[in-house]
Amino acid sequence: MLADLVTGRSIDGRVLEAIELIWHEAALLDAKDYRAWDALWTEDGRYVIPIDPAIEDFDAHLNMVNDDSRMRRMRIERLTSGYSMSALAAARTVRTVSRFTVEDRTEDTVTLRSAQILVGFRRDTQQTLAAELTHRIRSTADGPRLELKVIRLVNSESAVNASGYLL
């Protein structure tokens, strides 16, 4: 176990494993390795980008994205097929995920909140997006897997142009 530099407490090994998974997820997304990214998910995993930053009941509200595994795979197909506008001139991205805090721990899940800064470059234009992330990581026989990812963009209630990559 590593010592938490701020509090001096030990960091739970499952929390470290979850943070490593989130960093690995960010690297896969920047590399546009969407099939490997999809393999990180539980079968019932949800990928959500709400419009209202305060909501928790995603099914009862309008969202930019609210994908189950079927919709997530359809989104990946659109991004990788070469036939959609978002696939033709896909943005290059670099993201940083940091400021991890433990939101909840159960016997088989760890829920972390973090901050993400994503810089995308597409068609000679650079865009910066900031977001609060929530990841719920489930321990499985195959290792830790993403069960929930919520991306709360700081500008979610304004016009957001993030096509060409996953957040």
TrEMBL record:
UniProt cross-references to InterPro entries, sorted A to Z: NTF2-like_dom_sf (IPR032710), Rng_hydr_dOase-bsu (IPR000391)
Pfam families reported for this sequence: Ring_hydroxyl_B (PF00866)
A molecular-function term among this protein's GO annotations: dioxygenase activity
Keywords associated with the record: Dioxygenase, Oxidoreductase
Family: Belongs to the bacterial ring-hydroxylating dioxygenase beta subunit family.
The protein's name in its UniProt record: Aromatic-ring-hydroxylating dioxygenase subunit beta
